[in-house]
Amino acid sequence: MQKFKLTRRTLLAAISTLSMLAALPSAAFAASGDIRIVMKDLLTSNPEDVAHIERIEEGLRSQGHDIDITIVDLPSEGYAEKLNLMLLSGDIPDLIYFQGGDEQIAQQGVLQDLNPLIEKTTYLKDALWPHNEARLANYPYLLYVYPPRTKAAVMRADLLAATGKPAPTDLESWDALLRAIPGTEIGDTTVKYGIIAPNNTSELDAVFDPAFGVEATWMKNDAGEWINSRVSDAEREKLAWYSKLFADGILDPEFVTSNWEVKEDKFYTGQVGVVMGTAGPVIGIYETKMAQVNPGAELTLLEPAAGLQAVDVSKESRGFAIPVTTEQTEAVMAFLDFVASPDGQFLDRLGFEGTHYTREGDTLTATEKFGAWYPRFIISDPSEYTPPINALSPLAQSALDQGVTHFRPDNAFVWPAELAAAVDGAETYYRTSVFRFVSGELSTETDWDAFVQGWMDAGGKAMTEYAREALK
Amino acid sequence: MAQHTYDKINSPHHGKVPSRVVSAVGSALNEDWSDDFREPRTAEFKDNFQKWWPYYLMMAPGLIYFAVFHYLPIWEAKLAFEDLRIIGPNVWVGLKHFVQLFASPAFVEVLLNTLIISAMKIAFVFPLPILLALLINEVRSPRFRQSVQSVIYLPHFLSWVVIAGIFIGALSPADGAINDLRDLVGLERRGYMTDSGSIRWVLVWSEAWRSAGWDSLLYFAAIMSIDPQLYEAAEMDGASRWHKMRHITLPGIVPTIATLFILNVGLFLNAGFDQVFNLTNDAIQDKIDIIDTYVFRLGITGGQFSLATAAGLFKGVIGMVMMLSAHFLSKRLTGKGVW
């Protein structure tokens, strides 16, 4: 009898152990560990960063994850170079934010394929934007869940009215508007130039490429062969138009020696009519600064002439990577999944209660400091999470929406390391030649063939041969 | 007499005298003691160390610094012959990166730019501090001389970021001071910063503006060390100021000129990273892209560390060869060298 009782006890113990084991899958999902994160502008010297990380740890704990997060300080100035040197020295954190320079690391097999990891997440997989999914399919080592960084063109609303021209809708009306701007007066200021793009023509290309038929990085010529758009007839027509704008004093003649600060200064002080900025927060900054410099001045978002430049989906240009050396992959993914969750997004996008917003009942109100807060890790696709307070002004949000509306994936791809010198040589040659075409030093009529040959010799030939194999 | 000479030659104020010189001098003075000079080097060092050990101790931090930060890292230049691996050992690839580098048309252009810019700087910037020092030396009013010196030294303390801003502003075709002056004399306004024919001259003259005053300090110090009795004797012989400058001052600073020239030649391929990096733009990058900016762009920013190391090593070897050549040439022509 005694023996039976013991057996029954044993049986009960076994049943309870089995029950616990049956519950294990859900318990095993709870990740734990210490993770080290290196990220640009995430510093222990910033009390907000430290407090933000602490409340993320708390949030993770409330979801059953016992994760300690350590910030690895790296100076923001020259971050990409310093990160490369840190990794080369053998110090490899568990979560690495790259701002370029990741390809060489990935080619050595040091970074994990994120696709299968993201697939297992609860929130992160749904937080991705369409361009994120395309980029992860092409290059699975980098994750940057943010809206596409398209460019948007803006100008002062009162200047547009003063020109007497309607908001442009196509290339012809764009040309007419830009030509009407120089000499137009707004207040005490006479605007000198129609448009400016800092350092090179990239920002112009972002808005005008499709209007000339520059649809993608690689296009097919009449023979059906892949050629780089930079040596296409469409590019030639575009440069001829830029050249006319330059010759007629519409395009600021000092654009190539003007950096983004000079561009903004010329815009706010009324020297230039139209500028392009990154859709979203940057357009919001332009709006705020313009109103500060010229009280009452408002900006108007301009529609591109025929859609926006195709978005490069070969890979993320920046973002988070997980090295294969880490033993904390689960903890890192739990962290990323948390910041993609509604709770994490609330923390990451709204800042601190009492500082960046106030709460009265269910109503949240942004404070003056709300504009100083920025999401550190993720901005989910709006279909997954919409914050109760929109950090963007209506204009900035419209610019962002414009980018989403005109989103088209490009067909550019990641170059192998062996072609690095060729790509650099061709890029330098192209950029220098573009200025010479625009400034009139070279003619698109007579010097184009020599330019194409020069581009080929500078590295374009090797690039084209590789592209024709890659795009087959 | 002979003993006195021996002491003088080995005095610490004369530094280390090459043994063949000591031997020759010894032979000339007294055949018997030449053997005494040829004592084993280790014994000589031991004696010197025992005698001057506090000075050796003071030298030690400097020597350690150079050993750790300048000589040990040279070993890592082997990266030029390897493929870098973050995990596991690097892979030896021989001359792969050098072949890749020299096969790149851009590198040939970059090398050519470096040589042209460096040659222009040596030809036009190197003589300026000498000229400046000679002219300042002729200023008789000490107060005026000190004022001039202070003013011309100042640009040396400005960073290239600031200097680039000044030059871009001053050379602006829209409202730059230089173009305003051109306007005044009826010349057409010119975009110096975007003109492929002008940009190298901008590098040369901005370098001269920044460094001529500061560099003249060395020559001025050399002039100050010339024995005043030479000038007094020349004056008694009726020499003019031009004659004194031509026959006393200039020959007096030739050793300084030779040394600095050789050192400059050694740094020939250092065409000025900071300067070019801050003054470049897309319009003229192909004219002023130098080895250092190429290495930075491709290697540090682009993550091609092995390729960049190969370019850097190539630059270092060429620099070393040029410096040694200049040293031996100078020794042969003037009897003066770096050592």
UniProtKB/TrEMBL annotation, chain A:
Signal peptide limits: 1-30
One of the record's GO cellular component terms: periplasmic space
Highest taxon in the source lineage: Bacteria
Transmembrane segments: none
Main location (coarse class): periplasm
Location of the protein in the cell: Periplasm
Keywords assigned by UniProt, alphabetized: Cell membrane, Lipoprotein, Membrane, Palmitate, Periplasm, Signal
Family: Belongs to the bacterial solute-binding protein 1 family.
Stored PANTHER family: ARABINOSE-BINDING PROTEIN-RELATED, POLYGALACTURONAN_RHAMNOGALACTURONAN-BINDING PROTEIN YTCQ
Protein name: ABC transporter substrate-binding protein
Source organism of the structure: Ahrensia marina
